[in-house]
Design goal:
This protein has 17 helices and 17 strands. The chain is of the alpha/beta class.
C-alpha cells in the first residue's frame, strides 16, 4: 500500500504557555524529521491552520485536507500530537475510531505514540488522552474567561465596537468616549420616554423620521426601521450614565459559538468609567416608567395610574378598560377577567376617573401636611431606592452562594474519581487547588456584599425636590408620580391603600 502523506499543523491562543513549543515552525520541523526517517511515506502536502481553536473542526486547512482525502489524494495524516488535530473529545473519537478506519485512512500522532496502521502502545490510552485534551480545552477556556472578566471588572472596554452613542477612544482602545453625532439622538430618546412615550412609540417616531438604527449607523446593514426592543435596551443600559456595562451575552459553552443572554444580576457593571450622556435621576425615572408601562397595548391610552394599581385579594394587577358607550373608564382585576368562568377573585370594578381624583387628592393633602415641617427630611425615607439596592445585592449574594456550592460538589466528585483511579493524584491536586481558590475568592466577595447589605443609607433630598416640584404644578405627570408612589392597593370593598416611596414617622 502506498502511503500518501499530509502533514497537519495547528496553532491557537488556547495553547497558552506552550505557544513556543507548539509553534508552526517547531511542529513543521518535527514532522519533516519524521518523514526523513520513514522513506516509505510519500509526502504530498502540508495543511496549516494558524490561529484556529481545537474545540471544533470548522477550520479552512482541515476542510481542504478532508476534501483531498475524499478525492483519494491523501490516505495518511500525520500530526505532532493528538491535540494538534483537535481537542474535542467526541469529534476526535468519531474521526479516529470510525471515519478513518471506514475510509482506510492511516493516522499518526508522533508524541502520543499513535499509529492506527499498527497496534501502537498509545492506542491503549487513546480515550484517556482524548478526555485530558478536552479537559485542557475547557480549563484554558475558563482561564481566558477569568482574565477577560477581570479586565472588564477593572473598567476596561473589550468589545469590538462601542455601544451606540459612544466610540472607542483614539488614545486607548479599552476606553470609550461620547460620539457627538449620536448624543442628541440618545438624549431625545430619553426625553420622549420621560414624556410617557413607550419604546414602541419612540421606535415609530424614529422610523418615520428615517433615523438610522444602531446597526445602520455602524454600517452593518442599511436600516432605519427601529425595533421597540432596541429602544428598551438603550433606555435601561447604565453605560449612558457613565457605568460601563459588559457581559450581557456569553457563549453557550466552550465548544459552541452560539451566544445566550446573561441574567441582569450577572452583568459586569463598572461605575464611573467614562463621561455620561444621561443624568442618573433621568435614567432612574425612565426605568420606573418603563416598569409601570409594561404590557400596555398602546402608549396613547396609558392613564396616569396605569401600572400602579394592584388587587388586594389575589395580588394581580388592576387594569383599566373603557365602558361600552366610550364615555368613561373603569378599573377591573386582570386575574378575574382572565379566569371569570372559574370564579377566581372578583371584578373589583371601580370608576377610574373618581379613583384618580381620590388618589391625587390624598397625595396632595399628605404632602401639604408635611412639606413645611422642618424635620421633614428626617421623617422621609426613600424605600423604593433602598429596596432596589437591597434586591440587587441579595441576588449577587445568592449567585455567589450557588457558585460556592457548585465548586464544593466538584471537589467531592473529583475525590470520588481519585478513589476510583479515574484521575491521578497530580490532576486531583491541581483541580482541588483550583476549585478551592475560586471558593476563597467568592467567599471574600460574599462577605463584602453582606456587609454592604447591612449598611445602606438613603438620601432623601431627591424625594423632597420631587414633592416641591409637584406642589408647583397644576397637573401631575406620570414622570413625577412614579417618583412618589410605589403602588395602589384596591380591595374588593373598594378600600384604597396608597403605598408611597417614602415613609413618615
Amino acid at each position: 500500500m502506498k502511503f500518501n502523506v499530509a502533514l497537519y499543523i495547528r496553532l491557537s491562543r488556547e495553547d497558552g504557555d506552550n505557544l513556543e513549543s507548539e509553534s508552526i515552525v517547531n511542529q513543521r520541523k518535527i514532522l519533516h524529521l519524521f518523514l526523513e526517517k520513514h522513506k516509505e511515506l510519500n509526502y504530498v502536502n502540508e495543511y496549516v491552520d494558524d490561529g484556529f481553536t481545537g474545540s471544533n473542526f470548522n477550520r479552512p486547512a482541515w476542510k481542504k485536507l478532508m476534501m483531498d482525502v475524499k478525492n483519494k489524494q491523501i490516505n495518511t495524516i500525520v500530526t505532532k500530537d493528538l491535540s494538534r488535530m483537535g481537542r474535542d473529545y467526541i469529534s476526535m473519537g468519531e474521526y479516529i475510531e470510525r471515519l478513518f478506519p471506514e475510509n482506510n485512512i492511516r493516522y499518526i500522532a508522533l508524541n502520543d505514540d499513535i499509529d492506527t496502521f499498527y497496534e501502537t502502545p498509545g492506542l491503549e490510552f487513546l480515550q484517556f488522552k482524548l478526555v485530558f485534551n478536552d479537559y485542557y480545552l475547557k480549563d484554558t477556556s475558563k482561564k481566558i474567561k477569568k482574565v477577560i472578566r477581570a479586565k472588564k471588572e477593572k473598567g476596561e472596554f473589550l468589545g469590538w465596537k462601542a455601544i451606540y452613542g459612544y466610540k472607542k477612544s483614539p488614545s486607548d482602545k479599552h476606553k470609550i468616549v461620547i460620539d457627538e453625532k449620536v448624543k442628541p439622538i440618545i438624549k431625545r430618546m430619553f426625553a420622549l420616554a420621560l414624556e410617557g412615550k413607550s419604546p414602541r412609540q419612540i421606535a415609530r417616531i424614529f422610523t418615520e423620521e428615517h433615523i438610522k438604527t444602531p446597526s445602520g449607523y455602524a454600517g452593518i446593514k442599511n436600516s432605519t426601521i427601529w425595533c421597540p426592543r432596541t429602544i428598551e435596551e438603550i433606555l435601561t443600559n447604565e453605560t449612558y450614565i457613565g457605568n460601563l456595562t459588559q457581559g450581557k451575552r456569553r457563549k453557550l459553552n466552550y465548544k459552541s459559538k452560539k451566544e445566550i443572554r446573561v441574567p441582569k444580576e450577572n452583568w459586569i457593571i463598572t461605575k464611573n468609567t467614562h463621561e455620561a450622556i444621561i443624568d442618573k435621576k433621568v435614567f432612574e425615572t425612565v426605568g420606573e416608567l418603563l416598569k409601570k408601562n409594561k404590557n400596555k397595548v398602546s402608549g396613547n391610552n396609558i392613564k396616569l395610574l396605569s401600572g400602579f394599581m394592584w388587587c388586594k385579594e389575589c395580588g394581580h394587577k388592576i387594569g383599566i378598560n373603557k365602558s361600552s358607550d366610550g364615555k368613561r373608564y373603569y378599573c377591573h382585576c386582570n386575574y378575574y377577567t382572565a379566569n371569570s368562568k372559574y370564579g377566581l377573585c372578583t371584578p373589583h370594578s371601580l370608576n377610574y376617573q373618581k379613583l384618580e381624583l381620590i388618589v391625587l387628592g390624598e397625595l396632595k393633602k399628605m404632602i401639604k401636611k408635611y412639606v413645611d415641617c422642618n424635620s421633614f427630611i428626617v421623617k422621609v425615607e426613600n424605600f423604593g431606592l433602598k429596596n432596589n439596592l437591597k434586591t440587587k445585592t441579595q441576588k449577587e449574594i445568592n449567585n455567589l452562594t450557588s457558585k460556592i456550592n457548585t465548586n464544593t460538589l466538584y471537589i467531592d466528585k473529583i475525590y470520588e474519581d481519585k478513589l476510583k483511579e479515574n484521575i491521578d493524584i497530580e490532576m486531583f491536586n491541581r483541580l482541588t487547588e483550583k476549585y478551592r481558590g475560586e471558593i476563597n475568592i467568592w467567599q471574600t466577595e460574599k462577605k463584602e456584599l453582606e456587609r454592604k447589605l447591612n449598611n445602606f443609607t438613603i438620601n432623601n433630598e431627591d424625594i423632597l425636590v420631587k414633592i416641591n416640584e409637584y406642589l408647583s404644578l397644576k397637573k401631575i405627570t406620570r414622570n413625577l408620580l412614579v417618583n412618589l408612589i410605589d403602588k395602589i392597593i384596591i380591595s374588593e370593598d373598594k378600600i384604597i391603600e396608597i403605598h408611597y416611596k417614602f415613609k413618615l414617622y
